[in-house]
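REVIEWER CHECKLIST
Item 1: Sequence provided? yes
Item 2: Single chain? yes
Item 3: Sequence as submitted:
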Amino acid sequence: MLDQVQQHWMPWSAGIGFSLIVMLFCIRRPVVGRRLLAFVFLAGAVGHVYLAWIYPRDYLVFGQFTYLDSYRRFIYMILFRQATWMGGLMVVLHAYLAYVFWRKGALPKISILLSVLWLLLVAPLGFGSAFPASLLLLLGVIYLSKQPAELTEA
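Item 4: Structure as written out by the authors:
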């Protein structure tokens, strides 16, 4: 883990810093926070297009960063072999969440649940998910879900 931090500390730090900024915007300016979350999920959709359909072998990189053996086995044995359709599902999920967080109106409960589940599920990827960036984004989503719809609409 320590050599991974030394090798990739700039993108890791940038991911954490950006997530902290998004979380703070979710708290201070919920409309801007929603738009930034939409950008995060849109970037995730684009990233999964790259991973699933262009270079699926790059999913294997995440296996070396995870803290849990069960995640490592899943990545190496299942996800890599089924990257096209599983990655496609992740593209659809990210695109849906990007749309929901970008549009005006109250956040549907299902989109809050999906984003919370996704951010919790990527946290054990550790360095591969810029841990604790996913937890910071999770706090922003939870804060937005507790606010009245009038405060989070543009």
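Item 5: Key structural point noted by reviewer: The mean pLDDT is 85.
Item 6: Recommendation: ____
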